[in-house]
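Record 1 of the preview.
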Amino acid sequence: MSATGEHSHFDASSPERYRASLRVALVNITANFLLTTAQVIIGFLGHSQALVADGMHTLSDTLADLLVIFALKHGRKGADQEHPYGHERIETAVTMILGIVLIGVAIGIGVRAGMKLMTVSAIVTPSALTLWTALGTLAAKEAMYRYTIAIANRFGSNMLRASAWHHRSDALSSLIVAAGIGGSLIGFAYFDAIAAIVIAVMIIKVGAQLSWQSLRELVDTGLGTDDLDSIRQTILSVSGVKALHLLRTRRVGGQALADVHIIVDDRVSVSEGHQISEAVRAKLVKEIDPVTDVMVHIDTEEDVEGPSCEGLPLRDEVQKRLDDYFRAIPEARCIEHVTLHYLDGRIDIELLLPLSVAADAAAAQALASRFAEATQHDKQIRTVSVRYH
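->
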Protein backbone atom coordinates (compact mmCIF):
# COMPACT_ATOMS: atom_id res chain seq x y z
CA MET A 1 0.00 0.00 0.00
CA SER A 2 1.39 3.35 -0.95
CA ALA A 3 1.55 6.41 1.18
CA THR A 4 2.12 10.06 0.61
CA GLY A 5 4.26 10.61 3.68
CA GLU A 6 6.97 8.66 5.44
CA HIS A 7 5.75 5.12 5.94
CA SER A 8 5.66 3.42 9.29
CA HIS A 9 6.63 -0.19 8.56
CA PHE A 10 9.20 -1.82 10.83
CA ASP A 11 12.31 -3.67 9.76
CA ALA A 12 12.03 -7.36 10.64
CA SER A 13 15.26 -7.01 12.61
CA SER A 14 14.19 -3.93 14.60
CA PRO A 15 14.54 -4.41 18.39
CA GLU A 16 11.05 -3.05 19.08
CA ARG A 17 9.42 -5.47 16.65
CA TYR A 18 11.41 -8.39 18.03
CA ARG A 19 10.61 -7.60 21.68
CA ALA A 20 6.90 -7.17 21.00
CA SER A 21 6.69 -10.38 18.95
CA LEU A 22 8.66 -12.37 21.53
CA ARG A 23 6.38 -11.08 24.29
CA VAL A 24 3.34 -12.26 22.31
CA ALA A 25 4.84 -15.72 21.84
CA LEU A 26 5.74 -16.12 25.52
CA VAL A 27 2.30 -14.94 26.69
CA ASN A 28 0.64 -17.38 24.30
CA ILE A 29 2.80 -20.31 25.43
CA THR A 30 1.99 -19.64 29.09
CA ALA A 31 -1.73 -19.25 28.40
CA ASN A 32 -1.86 -22.43 26.28
CA PHE A 33 -0.14 -24.47 28.99
CA LEU A 34 -2.62 -23.30 31.65
CA LEU A 35 -5.59 -23.90 29.35
CA THR A 36 -4.37 -27.37 28.40
CA THR A 37 -4.03 -28.35 32.05
CA ALA A 38 -7.55 -27.13 32.88
CA GLN A 39 -9.19 -28.70 29.80
CA VAL A 40 -7.63 -32.14 30.22
CA ILE A 41 -8.24 -32.44 33.97
CA ILE A 42 -11.80 -31.07 33.96
CA GLY A 43 -12.66 -32.88 30.73
CA PHE A 44 -11.50 -36.20 32.19
CA LEU A 45 -13.28 -35.71 35.51
CA GLY A 46 -16.41 -34.32 33.82
CA HIS A 47 -16.67 -37.11 31.22
CA SER A 48 -16.23 -34.81 28.21
CA GLN A 49 -14.13 -36.41 25.48
CA ALA A 50 -14.58 -33.26 23.39
CA LEU A 51 -13.01 -31.08 26.08
CA VAL A 52 -10.09 -33.50 26.51
CA ALA A 53 -9.54 -33.54 22.73
CA ASP A 54 -9.69 -29.75 22.67
CA GLY A 55 -7.07 -29.73 25.43
CA MET A 56 -4.78 -31.83 23.25
CA HIS A 57 -5.47 -29.40 20.43
CA THR A 58 -4.44 -26.51 22.69
CA LEU A 59 -1.28 -28.38 23.64
CA SER A 60 -0.36 -28.61 19.96
CA ASP A 61 -0.49 -24.81 19.80
CA THR A 62 2.60 -24.69 21.97
CA LEU A 63 4.55 -26.18 19.06
CA ALA A 64 3.30 -23.39 16.81
CA ASP A 65 4.35 -20.78 19.37
CA LEU A 66 7.79 -22.38 19.63
CA LEU A 67 8.06 -22.13 15.84
CA VAL A 68 7.24 -18.44 16.15
CA ILE A 69 10.03 -17.94 18.69
CA PHE A 70 12.45 -19.83 16.43
CA ALA A 71 11.55 -17.61 13.48
CA LEU A 72 11.85 -14.46 15.59
CA LYS A 73 15.30 -15.44 16.80
CA HIS A 74 16.71 -16.37 13.41
CA GLY A 75 14.65 -14.12 11.12
CA ARG A 76 15.93 -10.92 12.73
CA LYS A 77 19.56 -11.69 11.87
CA GLY A 78 21.16 -9.31 9.42
CA ALA A 79 22.68 -10.20 6.08
CA ASP A 80 25.72 -12.46 5.99
CA GLN A 81 27.81 -14.21 3.35
CA GLU A 82 25.37 -17.09 2.94
CA HIS A 83 22.25 -14.91 3.24
CA PRO A 84 23.08 -11.59 1.52
CA TYR A 85 19.44 -10.48 1.67
CA GLY A 86 19.03 -11.28 5.37
CA HIS A 87 16.94 -13.97 7.08
CA GLU A 88 13.45 -12.45 6.91
CA ARG A 89 12.09 -15.30 4.82
CA ILE A 90 12.40 -17.60 7.79
CA GLU A 91 9.30 -15.74 9.00
CA THR A 92 7.65 -16.38 5.63
CA ALA A 93 8.40 -20.10 5.85
CA VAL A 94 6.99 -20.30 9.39
CA THR A 95 3.87 -18.43 8.22
CA MET A 96 3.36 -21.10 5.58
CA ILE A 97 3.81 -23.86 8.17
CA LEU A 98 1.25 -22.22 10.46
CA GLY A 99 -1.15 -21.89 7.54
CA ILE A 100 -0.79 -25.60 6.82
CA VAL A 101 -1.34 -26.34 10.52
CA LEU A 102 -4.57 -24.33 10.36
CA ILE A 103 -5.74 -26.45 7.45
CA GLY A 104 -4.86 -29.61 9.36
CA VAL A 105 -6.75 -28.37 12.43
CA ALA A 106 -9.79 -27.62 10.30
CA ILE A 107 -9.74 -31.05 8.71
CA GLY A 108 -9.53 -32.61 12.18
CA ILE A 109 -12.51 -30.57 13.36
CA GLY A 110 -14.50 -31.57 10.30
CA VAL A 111 -13.68 -35.27 10.65
CA ARG A 112 -14.52 -35.21 14.36
CA ALA A 113 -17.82 -33.48 13.58
CA GLY A 114 -18.67 -36.06 10.94
CA MET A 115 -17.97 -38.88 13.36
CA LYS A 116 -20.24 -37.24 15.94
CA LEU A 117 -23.07 -37.05 13.42
CA MET A 118 -22.76 -40.78 12.88
CA THR A 119 -22.55 -41.68 16.58
CA VAL A 120 -24.93 -39.26 18.32
CA SER A 121 -26.45 -42.05 20.38
CA ALA A 122 -23.03 -42.97 21.82
CA ILE A 123 -22.35 -39.55 23.32
CA VAL A 124 -22.20 -39.49 27.13
CA THR A 125 -23.72 -36.43 28.74
CA PRO A 126 -20.91 -34.40 30.36
CA SER A 127 -21.09 -32.35 33.54
CA ALA A 128 -22.05 -28.65 33.57
CA LEU A 129 -18.52 -27.73 34.74
CA THR A 130 -17.14 -28.81 31.36
CA LEU A 131 -19.45 -26.30 29.67
CA TRP A 132 -18.11 -23.45 31.79
CA THR A 133 -14.56 -24.60 31.10
CA ALA A 134 -15.21 -24.60 27.36
CA LEU A 135 -16.70 -21.10 27.56
CA GLY A 136 -13.73 -19.90 29.60
CA THR A 137 -11.35 -21.38 27.04
CA LEU A 138 -13.29 -19.68 24.26
CA ALA A 139 -12.95 -16.30 25.98
CA ALA A 140 -9.24 -16.82 26.64
CA LYS A 141 -8.53 -17.86 23.06
CA GLU A 142 -10.46 -14.90 21.65
CA ALA A 143 -8.47 -12.57 23.94
CA MET A 144 -5.22 -14.17 22.70
CA TYR A 145 -6.38 -13.67 19.11
CA ARG A 146 -7.14 -9.98 19.62
CA TYR A 147 -3.85 -9.37 21.44
CA THR A 148 -1.78 -11.18 18.81
CA ILE A 149 -3.53 -9.64 15.79
CA ALA A 150 -3.07 -6.14 17.23
CA ILE A 151 0.70 -6.66 17.49
CA ALA A 152 0.78 -8.29 14.05
CA ASN A 153 -0.97 -5.32 12.44
CA ARG A 154 1.21 -2.83 14.29
CA PHE A 155 4.46 -4.36 13.03
CA GLY A 156 3.22 -5.81 9.72
CA SER A 157 4.04 -9.43 10.65
CA ASN A 158 2.30 -12.09 8.56
CA MET A 159 3.74 -14.73 10.86
CA LEU A 160 1.97 -13.23 13.89
CA ARG A 161 -1.20 -12.87 11.80
CA ALA A 162 -1.03 -16.59 11.11
CA SER A 163 -0.49 -17.26 14.81
CA ALA A 164 -3.44 -14.97 15.66
CA TRP A 165 -5.74 -16.83 13.30
CA HIS A 166 -4.58 -20.05 14.88
CA HIS A 167 -5.92 -18.69 18.17
CA ARG A 168 -9.16 -17.70 16.44
CA SER A 169 -9.50 -21.23 15.11
CA ASP A 170 -8.97 -22.48 18.67
CA ALA A 171 -11.71 -20.14 19.90
CA LEU A 172 -14.04 -21.50 17.24
CA SER A 173 -13.07 -25.02 18.23
CA SER A 174 -13.89 -24.21 21.85
CA LEU A 175 -17.20 -22.75 20.68
CA ILE A 176 -17.93 -26.07 19.01
CA VAL A 177 -17.07 -27.89 22.21
CA ALA A 178 -19.32 -25.56 24.21
CA ALA A 179 -22.14 -26.01 21.69
CA GLY A 180 -21.68 -29.77 21.78
CA ILE A 181 -21.73 -29.90 25.57
CA GLY A 182 -24.67 -27.49 25.72
CA GLY A 183 -26.52 -29.50 23.11
CA SER A 184 -25.85 -32.68 25.02
CA LEU A 185 -27.20 -31.12 28.21
CA ILE A 186 -30.49 -30.12 26.51
CA GLY A 187 -30.82 -33.09 24.16
CA PHE A 188 -29.55 -31.73 20.82
CA ALA A 189 -26.10 -33.26 20.57
CA TYR A 190 -25.92 -33.06 16.75
CA PHE A 191 -25.91 -29.20 16.72
CA ASP A 192 -22.22 -28.97 17.48
CA ALA A 193 -21.33 -31.34 14.62
CA ILE A 194 -23.15 -29.23 12.02
CA ALA A 195 -21.53 -26.04 13.32
CA ALA A 196 -18.14 -27.76 13.35
CA ILE A 197 -18.33 -28.55 9.65
CA VAL A 198 -19.20 -24.93 8.77
CA ILE A 199 -16.39 -23.58 10.95
CA ALA A 200 -13.92 -26.11 9.54
CA VAL A 201 -14.55 -24.74 6.05
CA MET A 202 -13.91 -21.20 7.31
CA ILE A 203 -10.63 -22.20 8.95
CA ILE A 204 -9.47 -24.02 5.82
CA LYS A 205 -10.07 -20.83 3.83
CA VAL A 206 -7.97 -18.75 6.25
CA GLY A 207 -5.16 -21.34 6.33
CA ALA A 208 -5.13 -21.57 2.53
CA GLN A 209 -4.93 -17.79 2.19
CA LEU A 210 -1.99 -17.55 4.59
CA SER A 211 -0.14 -20.44 2.95
CA TRP A 212 -0.80 -19.11 -0.56
CA GLN A 213 0.41 -15.62 0.37
CA SER A 214 3.63 -17.08 1.83
CA LEU A 215 4.15 -19.31 -1.21
CA ARG A 216 3.78 -16.30 -3.52
CA GLU A 217 6.45 -14.50 -1.51
CA LEU A 218 8.81 -17.48 -1.57
CA VAL A 219 8.60 -17.57 -5.38
CA ASP A 220 9.29 -13.80 -5.61
CA THR A 221 5.83 -12.60 -6.60
CA GLY A 222 5.97 -8.83 -7.11
CA LEU A 223 3.90 -6.08 -5.55
CA GLY A 224 0.40 -5.31 -6.76
CA THR A 225 -0.61 -2.90 -9.52
CA ASP A 226 -1.43 -0.03 -7.15
CA ASP A 227 1.98 -0.26 -5.46
CA LEU A 228 3.78 -0.41 -8.81
CA ASP A 229 1.90 2.66 -10.06
CA SER A 230 2.85 4.56 -6.89
CA ILE A 231 6.49 3.54 -7.32
CA ARG A 232 6.52 4.73 -10.94
CA GLN A 233 4.97 8.07 -10.05
CA THR A 234 7.47 8.59 -7.23
CA ILE A 235 10.46 7.80 -9.46
CA LEU A 236 9.27 10.15 -12.22
CA SER A 237 8.87 12.96 -9.69
CA VAL A 238 12.64 12.98 -9.02
CA SER A 239 14.49 15.76 -10.87
CA GLY A 240 16.71 14.38 -13.63
CA VAL A 241 14.66 11.24 -14.31
CA LYS A 242 13.25 11.29 -17.84
CA ALA A 243 11.64 7.83 -17.85
CA LEU A 244 11.99 4.35 -16.37
CA HIS A 245 11.76 0.72 -17.42
CA LEU A 246 12.45 -2.80 -16.14
CA LEU A 247 10.83 -2.14 -12.77
CA ARG A 248 10.87 -5.31 -10.66
CA THR A 249 9.79 -5.93 -7.08
CA ARG A 250 9.67 -8.80 -4.61
CA ARG A 251 8.68 -9.34 -1.00
CA VAL A 252 10.99 -10.50 1.78
CA GLY A 253 9.18 -11.02 5.08
CA GLY A 254 7.20 -7.89 5.81
CA GLN A 255 9.38 -5.84 3.47
CA ALA A 256 9.68 -5.29 -0.27
CA LEU A 257 12.75 -4.87 -2.46
CA ALA A 258 12.80 -3.19 -5.87
CA ASP A 259 15.18 -2.66 -8.76
CA VAL A 260 14.63 -0.32 -11.68
CA HIS A 261 16.37 1.20 -14.71
CA ILE A 262 15.96 4.98 -14.87
CA ILE A 263 16.64 7.03 -17.98
CA VAL A 264 18.65 10.25 -17.64
CA ASP A 265 20.19 12.75 -20.04
CA ASP A 266 22.96 11.13 -22.09
CA ARG A 267 25.55 13.77 -21.12
CA VAL A 268 25.26 13.74 -17.32
CA SER A 269 28.42 12.87 -15.42
CA VAL A 270 28.83 9.60 -13.56
CA SER A 271 28.61 11.45 -10.24
CA GLU A 272 25.40 13.25 -11.24
CA GLY A 273 23.85 10.00 -12.43
CA HIS A 274 24.77 8.42 -9.10
CA GLN A 275 23.26 11.37 -7.24
CA ILE A 276 20.00 10.99 -9.18
CA SER A 277 19.89 7.26 -8.44
CA GLU A 278 20.45 7.89 -4.72
CA ALA A 279 17.65 10.45 -4.72
CA VAL A 280 15.33 7.87 -6.32
CA ARG A 281 16.27 5.23 -3.75
CA ALA A 282 15.86 7.55 -0.77
CA LYS A 283 12.47 8.85 -1.93
CA LEU A 284 11.06 5.37 -2.55
CA VAL A 285 12.20 4.09 0.85
CA LYS A 286 10.73 7.16 2.54
CA GLU A 287 7.39 7.37 0.75
CA ILE A 288 6.42 3.87 -0.43
CA ASP A 289 5.34 1.25 2.07
CA PRO A 290 6.66 -1.48 2.38
CA VAL A 291 9.73 -0.76 0.18
CA THR A 292 12.94 -0.91 2.26
CA ASP A 293 15.66 -1.04 -0.39
CA VAL A 294 16.01 -0.18 -4.08
CA MET A 295 18.67 -0.95 -6.67
CA VAL A 296 18.76 1.76 -9.34
CA HIS A 297 20.46 1.30 -12.71
CA ILE A 298 21.22 4.37 -14.84
CA ASP A 299 20.43 4.32 -18.57
CA THR A 300 20.68 7.07 -21.18
CA GLU A 301 17.73 7.89 -23.39
CA GLU A 302 19.54 6.68 -26.49
CA ASP A 303 20.36 3.41 -24.73
CA VAL A 304 16.65 2.63 -24.86
CA GLU A 305 15.48 4.28 -28.06
CA GLY A 306 18.52 3.79 -30.30
CA PRO A 307 20.72 0.86 -31.33
CA SER A 308 22.34 -1.13 -28.55
CA CYS A 309 25.89 -0.36 -27.43
CA GLU A 310 26.47 -3.99 -26.55
CA GLY A 311 29.75 -5.25 -28.00
CA LEU A 312 31.46 -1.86 -28.23
CA PRO A 313 35.05 -1.85 -26.90
CA LEU A 314 35.86 -0.57 -23.42
CA ARG A 315 38.39 2.12 -22.55
CA ASP A 316 41.56 0.01 -22.73
CA GLU A 317 40.82 -1.15 -26.27
CA VAL A 318 39.68 2.31 -27.38
CA GLN A 319 42.84 3.89 -25.96
CA LYS A 320 45.03 1.44 -27.89
CA ARG A 321 43.22 2.34 -31.11
CA LEU A 322 43.57 6.06 -30.47
CA ASP A 323 47.29 5.73 -29.75
CA ASP A 324 47.65 4.09 -33.15
CA TYR A 325 45.39 6.56 -34.96
CA PHE A 326 47.09 9.63 -33.46
CA ARG A 327 50.67 8.38 -33.95
CA ALA A 328 51.34 11.00 -36.65
CA ILE A 329 49.90 13.87 -34.56
CA PRO A 330 52.57 15.27 -32.19
CA GLU A 331 50.00 17.14 -30.12
CA ALA A 332 48.41 13.79 -29.15
CA ARG A 333 51.16 13.41 -26.53
CA CYS A 334 49.59 16.39 -24.72
CA ILE A 335 46.14 14.78 -24.34
CA GLU A 336 45.26 15.01 -20.64
CA HIS A 337 42.03 13.05 -20.60
CA VAL A 338 39.79 11.08 -22.92
CA THR A 339 36.03 11.01 -22.25
CA LEU A 340 33.97 8.28 -23.90
CA HIS A 341 30.22 8.56 -24.57
CA TYR A 342 28.49 5.32 -25.59
CA LEU A 343 25.46 6.57 -27.50
CA ASP A 344 23.22 5.24 -30.23
CA GLY A 345 25.32 2.16 -30.84
CA ARG A 346 28.62 4.07 -31.36
CA ILE A 347 31.25 6.00 -29.38
CA ASP A 348 31.62 9.77 -29.18
CA ILE A 349 35.09 10.76 -28.00
CA GLU A 350 36.04 13.99 -26.26
CA LEU A 351 39.73 14.92 -25.93
CA LEU A 352 41.02 17.37 -23.33
CA LEU A 353 44.15 19.32 -24.29
CA PRO A 354 45.93 22.37 -22.86
CA LEU A 355 45.26 25.61 -24.71
CA SER A 356 48.99 26.04 -25.24
CA VAL A 357 49.06 23.42 -28.02
CA ALA A 358 47.13 25.76 -30.32
CA ALA A 359 48.46 29.21 -31.23
CA ASP A 360 45.04 30.60 -32.10
CA ALA A 361 41.43 29.64 -32.82
CA ALA A 362 42.20 28.62 -36.38
CA ALA A 363 45.00 26.34 -35.23
CA ALA A 364 42.76 24.83 -32.57
CA GLN A 365 40.06 24.10 -35.14
CA ALA A 366 42.58 22.60 -37.55
CA LEU A 367 43.98 20.33 -34.83
CA ALA A 368 40.50 19.14 -33.92
CA SER A 369 39.88 18.29 -37.58
CA ARG A 370 43.09 16.25 -37.72
CA PHE A 371 42.02 14.18 -34.71
CA ALA A 372 38.60 13.57 -36.25
CA GLU A 373 40.05 12.59 -39.65
CA ALA A 374 42.43 10.12 -38.00
CA THR A 375 39.50 8.05 -36.68
CA GLN A 376 37.02 8.41 -39.53
CA HIS A 377 37.63 4.89 -40.86
CA ASP A 378 36.68 3.31 -37.48
CA LYS A 379 33.00 2.42 -37.77
CA GLN A 380 32.57 2.14 -33.99
CA ILE A 381 33.71 5.72 -33.41
CA ARG A 382 31.14 8.32 -34.45
CA THR A 383 32.74 11.63 -33.54
CA VAL A 384 35.92 13.06 -32.01
CA SER A 385 35.81 16.51 -30.45
CA VAL A 386 38.50 18.55 -28.72
CA ARG A 387 38.15 20.70 -25.62
CA TYR A 388 40.89 23.10 -24.59
CA HIS A 389 41.60 24.52 -21.18
